[in-house]
Specification:
heterodimer, A: alpha/beta, Aspartate Aminotransferase, domain 1, Aspartate Aminotransferase, domain 2, 7-stranded mixed β-sheet, 4-stranded antiparallel β-sheet, 11 helices, globular, B: alpha+beta, Alpha-Beta Plaits, 4 strands
């Protein structure tokens, strides 16, 4: 099997993640922040070490600003529904995942908020910023965008957007589902107020957790309340982080795996990971761009930076059919719309979606070569 | 040197206090708070030995929230 669906979830995980998982489940399986006995305290220490690790990795203010959620979508919803009030205006980019546009649309339909979509220019950051500036209104409270598109790998200029937000007193939220662990993210330098992450993508943890890192400056209205292990006689939810946003038992194994994934990334080096994946995409792009029957959607060699994701289509065939053909040869890719109506609208791929190839650090050039040759050989059969 | 108990609302705040104290050379441990203040419910405390004035100053300067600072 050749696994090229890493933007959905990375596979395989680093060997350290697998081996620690078994150890963690055996040794640190009591409920953290609930008991006072040794295993509960040890588990709480393990969770805290992941908070510290994330704080350091993304240059966040402090470990209590790291809240664990069910997944990245849940983290995005927690911010949007927790901070926006009736009459607020929001801006998002035209390459957002449905985890952003759907909560915004729901709030718009409820007549709570209004939103506009700014146009990204993948080859010109300043043009993106210019369009964004033109759409800011006096009532614009928040700008949310992904760090990179989950369909095409295009990157939003988050440092420039963060600076703009800072200058205009606008809250800046970043969905880093496709970039955390590949691209450098510095919350303070980029003026990010809220950063949303999944456990199971390029942070190399397992499925089951998300992360919401706050700058600690804003209080959110909670969308879920319940047991936190603290202030238990109080009918009201604690008002302090992370307890405020962490009702119920945490996904301890998934959270612990984030720590192991981060340690792998630190040991390997973010630049090493990025460069490896970048080379694979550029090589893939070069080879696929020579096939007339294939349609590609960007000149990757002209992009200054991108996440390791490449979408394409085969003329005369739906993306689902193409992916099914590749699956028959043991190549795992994703087809369709990738939960991003916006990105497909922007790129005129609403009819058939796209076939998406997304390598990871563990993908080899040999695997990419096999994929290229399989596509070439199969074209006539297609 | 006094034995000091710093009650924190949550285990995370207790861990932040413990981490701060350890970085400053104190031997601190976290325990489940044995006596729960009226109306509060569950919580964790950091226990250490040290000069109470200096420890209090350190904690207050850090701006980490705590519920009670007590010399035992």
């Amino acid at each position: 099997m050749i696994y090229l669906d890493n933007s959905a979830t990375t596979f395989p995980k680093p060997k350290e993640v697998y081996s620690s998982l078994v150890t963690n489940v055996r040794r640190y399986s009591a409920n953290p922040g609930r008991g006072g006995y040794e295993m509960s305290m040890d588990t709480a220490d393990k969770i805290y070490s992941v908070r510290e690790n994330l704080t350091d990795f993304f240059n966040a203010p402090s470990p209590d600003c790291v809240s664990f959620t069910l997944n990245c979508t849940y983290a995005v919803n927690t911010v949007l529904k927790g901070i926006l009030k009736r009459g607020d205006h929001v801006l998002c980019s035209d390459i957002e995942h449905n985890c952003v546009i759907r909560p915004l649309e729901k709030m718009r339909l409820n007549a709570d908020i209004t939103y506009d979509i700014f146009k990204t220019d993948i080859y010109n950051e300043n043009a993106t910023i210019s369009d964004l500036v033109g759409k800011i209104k006096p009532e614009t409270k928040l700008i949310i965008c992904n760090n990179s598109s989950n369909v095409f790998g295009f990157v939003n200029p988050i440092e420039k957007i963060g600076k703009l937000c800072k200058e205009n007193g606008i809250i800046f939220v970043v969905d880093a589902a496709q970039s955390a662990g590949v691209l450098k993210i510095d919350m303070r330098q980029m003026h990010i107020n809220f950063l949303c992450l999944p456990s199971h993508k390029s942070l190399y943890g397992i499925m089951g957790a998300g992360v919401l890192i706050s700058d600690g400056l804003f209080t959110l209205n909670t969308i879920v309340e319940g047991g936190t292990g603290s202030d238990s006689l109080n009918y009201s939810q604690p008002s302090y982080l992370p307890d405020m946003l962490e009702s119920g038992t945490l996904a301890v194994p998934a959270i612990e795996s984030i720590g192991d994934g981060l340690n792998f990334i630190r040991k390997t080096g973010l630049d090493t990971i990025f460069n490896h994946e970048r080379e694979l995409i550029l090589y893939l792009y070069k080879e696929l761009s020579e096939i007339d029957a294939l349609k590609l959607y960007a000149d990757y060699d002209k992009l200054s930076v991108f996440s390791p994701i490449l979408s394409f289509n085969i003329n005369g065939m739906s993306s689902e059919e193409a992916a099914a053909k590749l699956a028959q040869k043991g190549i795992c890719v994703r087809a369709g719309y990738h939960c991003s109506a916006l990105a497909h609208t922007k790129m005129n791929t609403l009819k058939d979606g796209t076939v998406r190839i997304s390598p990871s650090f563990f993908t080899t050039k040999k695997e990419i070569n096999y994929t290229i040759s399989t596509i070439k050989k199969s074209l006539s059969a297609f | 040197m006094s034995e000091i108990q710093i009650k924190a609302g949550s285990v995370t705040n207790a861990q932040r206090i413990e981490s701060l104290l350890k970085r400053n050379g104190y031997r601190a441990t976290i325990r489940r708070s044995s006596r729960i203040a009226k109306g509060e419910g569950c919580g964790y405390s950091v226990i250490l030995k040290g000069e109470s004035g200096k420890v209090l100053e350190l904690i207050n300067n850090s701006r980490i929230k705590y519920k009670e600072f007590k010399v035992l």
